[in-house]
Amino acid sequence: KLLERQAIRRVEGGTLSEQEIERLGLTLMKLENKMDELKQHFQLTDDDLTIDLGPIGELM
User: Fold this and answer.
1) Tens place of pLDDT for every residue, the chain, 60 residues?
2) pTM (predicted TM-score)
3) Is 24 within 8 Å of 16 (Cβ atoms)?
4) Residue 52 to residues 4, 5, 20, 44, 59: CA-CA distances in angstroms?
5) CA angle (59 as vertex; 37, 32 as ends), nearest 5
6) Which is it for strands 58-59 and 51-52: parallel, antiparallel or unpaired?
7) What is the pLDDT of residue 52?
8) Using CA atoms, how far apart are residues 39 and 17, in angstroms rounded to an integer?
């Protein structure tokens, strides 16, 4: 999720070409698919991967 937020900032900032935006989107989709595969393999949920940062909040 953190990578997605950073990617959105770069896209909205206008610093990426159309080709880079397309490649970024495909890469994020592949990453999400791989994460789903790993979560299933290790029997993890999204809650298992959430990091509690205390007063700052949660990461993910």
Assistant:
1) 778 888 889 899 998 999 999 999 999 999 999 999 999 999 999 888 888 777 776 666
2) 0.70
3) yes
4) 19, 18, 33, 16, 6
5) 25
6) antiparallel
7) 79
8) 33
Per the CB < 8 A criterion, the answer to whether 30 and 39 are in contact is: no
Instruction: Transcribe 1-60 into DSSP letters.
Output: -HHHHHHHHHHHHT-S-HHHHHHHHHHHHHHHHHHHHHHHHTT--TGGG-EE-GGG-EE-
Amino acid at 59: L
Structure tokens at 40: 């299933």
Extents of the domains making up the chain: 2-51
